[in-house]
Amino acid sequence: MFDDPILNDFLFVNPYEGKLWLSKEQLEKLMYWLFFCSVVHVLGDQVQVLENAAEAVHSQYHRVHEVLAAAESVKYQVEPLLELLS
Fold this sequence. Notes:
Number of helices: 4
Strand order of the largest sheet: 1-2
Number of strands: 2
Low-confidence stretches: none
Mean pLDDT: 91
Largest sheet: 2 strands, antiparallel
Shape: elongated
Number of domains: 1
Distance between the termini: 12 Å
Helix content: over 70%
Strand content: 5-15%
Structural class: mainly alpha
């Protein structure tokens, strides 16, 4: 994920005191846009809409908040965040 220079620019990834950091606000923006895209995908799948769209959307929403909580817990440092999420 952090090998992409465009994504790094979007997240304002920057080195400081020998560690890589990212912007809280930009990460939130990215996560909510990804959530929006996943909701559109779920609602576009007619079979899933009939069966369990609410559950799928709730699951994605929960995952967004897990990622944001993980980022906050490591104070937005890139390497520890990647370790937590892998």
